[in-house]
Amino acid sequence: MNICLPRSAEENNLMAQRILKSIPGETVNNNERAALCALFLNDESEPVGAVMYYGLSEHNVFITIVIYDRRFATKEKFHETFSLAFEDPLNVYRITALVAEENKASQRLCERIGFHKEGTSIGLRGTEEDVTHIYRYTQRDWYGSKFYGSDES
Fold this sequence. Notes:
Elements: E1 2-4, H1 9-21, E2 34-41, E3 47-54, E4 60-67, H2 75-86, E5 94-100, H3 104-112, E6 116-122, E7 131-138, H4 139-143
Parallel strand pairs: 4-5
Antiparallel strand pairs: 1-2, 2-3, 3-4, 5-7, 6-7
Protein backbone atom coordinates (compact mmCIF):
# COMPACT_ATOMS: atom_id res chain seq x y z
CA MET A 1 0.00 0.00 0.00
CA ASN A 2 1.11 3.51 -0.78
CA ILE A 3 0.28 6.90 0.68
CA CYS A 4 -0.54 9.76 -1.65
CA LEU A 5 -0.05 13.27 -0.28
CA PRO A 6 -1.04 16.41 -2.18
CA ARG A 7 1.65 18.41 -3.97
CA SER A 8 -0.33 21.65 -3.90
CA ALA A 9 -3.23 23.39 -2.17
CA GLU A 10 -5.38 22.73 -5.23
CA GLU A 11 -4.63 19.01 -5.13
CA ASN A 12 -5.36 18.99 -1.37
CA ASN A 13 -8.78 20.56 -2.04
CA LEU A 14 -9.55 17.97 -4.73
CA MET A 15 -8.65 15.17 -2.32
CA ALA A 16 -10.84 16.78 0.36
CA GLN A 17 -13.78 16.88 -2.07
CA ARG A 18 -13.33 13.18 -2.83
CA ILE A 19 -13.17 12.29 0.86
CA LEU A 20 -16.20 14.41 1.78
CA LYS A 21 -18.30 13.01 -1.07
CA SER A 22 -17.98 9.57 0.52
CA ILE A 23 -19.28 10.68 3.93
CA PRO A 24 -23.08 10.84 4.37
CA GLY A 25 -24.19 14.25 5.60
CA GLU A 26 -20.99 16.07 4.68
CA THR A 27 -20.93 18.67 1.93
CA VAL A 28 -18.19 19.32 -0.56
CA ASN A 29 -18.19 23.00 0.49
CA ASN A 30 -16.53 21.93 3.75
CA ASN A 31 -13.30 21.14 1.88
CA GLU A 32 -11.97 24.65 2.50
CA ARG A 33 -11.34 23.58 6.08
CA ALA A 34 -8.88 20.83 5.07
CA ALA A 35 -5.33 21.39 6.35
CA LEU A 36 -3.97 18.15 4.87
CA CYS A 37 -5.41 15.14 3.10
CA ALA A 38 -3.84 11.73 2.56
CA LEU A 39 -5.10 8.98 0.29
CA PHE A 40 -3.97 5.40 0.87
CA LEU A 41 -3.76 3.23 -2.26
CA ASN A 42 -3.39 -0.51 -2.76
CA ASP A 43 -0.87 -2.02 -5.20
CA GLU A 44 -3.34 -1.48 -8.06
CA SER A 45 -3.54 2.26 -7.18
CA GLU A 46 -7.13 1.92 -5.94
CA PRO A 47 -8.08 3.88 -2.79
CA VAL A 48 -8.46 1.79 0.35
CA GLY A 49 -8.62 4.63 2.87
CA ALA A 50 -8.34 8.36 3.29
CA VAL A 51 -7.58 10.80 6.06
CA MET A 52 -8.47 14.48 6.22
CA TYR A 53 -7.00 16.76 8.87
CA TYR A 54 -8.85 20.04 9.37
CA GLY A 55 -9.25 22.89 11.85
CA LEU A 56 -5.51 23.00 12.46
CA SER A 57 -4.38 25.07 15.45
CA GLU A 58 -1.08 25.25 17.29
CA HIS A 59 -1.78 22.16 19.43
CA ASN A 60 -4.77 20.38 17.86
CA VAL A 61 -6.09 19.09 14.58
CA PHE A 62 -9.45 17.46 13.80
CA ILE A 63 -9.46 14.22 11.83
CA THR A 64 -11.81 12.42 9.47
CA ILE A 65 -10.93 8.84 8.53
CA VAL A 66 -12.69 7.10 5.64
CA ILE A 67 -12.21 3.37 5.12
CA TYR A 68 -13.04 2.18 1.60
CA ASP A 69 -11.57 -1.29 2.14
CA ARG A 70 -11.08 -3.02 5.50
CA ARG A 71 -7.46 -3.79 4.55
CA PHE A 72 -6.78 -0.11 5.34
CA ALA A 73 -7.36 -0.71 9.05
CA THR A 74 -3.84 -1.99 9.76
CA LYS A 75 -1.21 -1.14 12.32
CA GLU A 76 0.97 0.27 9.52
CA LYS A 77 -1.73 2.61 8.19
CA PHE A 78 -2.58 3.96 11.64
CA HIS A 79 1.13 4.54 12.27
CA GLU A 80 1.30 6.60 9.07
CA THR A 81 -1.93 8.42 9.95
CA PHE A 82 -0.74 9.43 13.42
CA SER A 83 2.81 10.27 12.33
CA LEU A 84 1.43 12.83 9.83
CA ALA A 85 -0.27 14.60 12.74
CA PHE A 86 2.27 14.23 15.54
CA GLU A 87 5.42 14.63 13.45
CA ASP A 88 5.98 16.36 10.12
CA PRO A 89 4.09 17.99 8.56
CA LEU A 90 1.51 19.00 11.23
CA ASN A 91 3.41 18.62 14.55
CA VAL A 92 0.41 18.86 16.89
CA TYR A 93 -0.05 17.52 20.41
CA ARG A 94 -3.63 16.32 20.01
CA ILE A 95 -6.01 14.85 17.42
CA THR A 96 -9.76 15.34 17.89
CA ALA A 97 -12.40 13.18 16.20
CA LEU A 98 -16.05 14.23 16.04
CA VAL A 99 -18.31 11.20 15.50
CA ALA A 100 -22.05 11.30 14.85
CA GLU A 101 -24.26 9.36 17.27
CA GLU A 102 -25.59 7.16 14.49
CA ASN A 103 -22.09 6.21 13.29
CA LYS A 104 -21.53 3.26 15.62
CA ALA A 105 -18.76 1.77 13.43
CA SER A 106 -16.64 4.92 13.76
CA GLN A 107 -17.24 5.04 17.50
CA ARG A 108 -15.99 1.45 17.78
CA LEU A 109 -12.98 2.23 15.57
CA CYS A 110 -12.01 5.27 17.69
CA GLU A 111 -12.18 3.21 20.86
CA ARG A 112 -10.34 0.24 19.32
CA ILE A 113 -7.37 2.33 18.18
CA GLY A 114 -7.05 4.16 21.48
CA PHE A 115 -9.03 7.40 21.26
CA HIS A 116 -10.56 8.53 24.56
CA LYS A 117 -14.17 9.69 24.62
CA GLU A 118 -14.27 13.17 26.17
CA GLY A 119 -17.94 13.92 25.92
CA THR A 120 -21.00 14.51 23.81
CA SER A 121 -22.22 17.68 22.15
CA ILE A 122 -25.63 18.57 20.79
CA GLY A 123 -26.13 20.81 17.79
CA LEU A 124 -22.61 20.98 16.32
CA ARG A 125 -24.05 20.55 12.84
CA GLY A 126 -26.85 23.03 13.31
CA THR A 127 -29.78 21.03 14.70
CA GLU A 128 -30.90 20.03 18.17
CA GLU A 129 -31.32 16.45 16.93
CA ASP A 130 -27.63 16.23 16.07
CA VAL A 131 -25.63 14.35 18.70
CA THR A 132 -21.85 14.22 18.24
CA HIS A 133 -19.33 12.33 20.36
CA ILE A 134 -15.94 13.95 20.94
CA TYR A 135 -12.82 11.76 21.04
CA ARG A 136 -9.17 12.71 21.66
CA TYR A 137 -5.84 11.07 20.94
CA THR A 138 -2.62 12.72 22.14
CA GLN A 139 1.09 12.32 21.51
CA ARG A 140 1.32 10.58 24.89
CA ASP A 141 -1.32 8.05 23.74
CA TRP A 142 0.58 7.50 20.49
CA TYR A 143 4.02 7.06 22.08
CA GLY A 144 2.58 4.41 24.41
CA SER A 145 0.61 2.60 21.70
CA LYS A 146 1.15 -0.34 19.39
CA PHE A 147 1.17 2.09 16.44
CA TYR A 148 4.22 4.12 17.47
CA GLY A 149 7.52 3.05 15.99
CA SER A 150 5.90 0.42 13.82
CA ASP A 151 5.81 0.94 10.10
CA GLU A 152 5.59 -2.70 9.13
CA SER A 153 2.29 -4.38 8.18
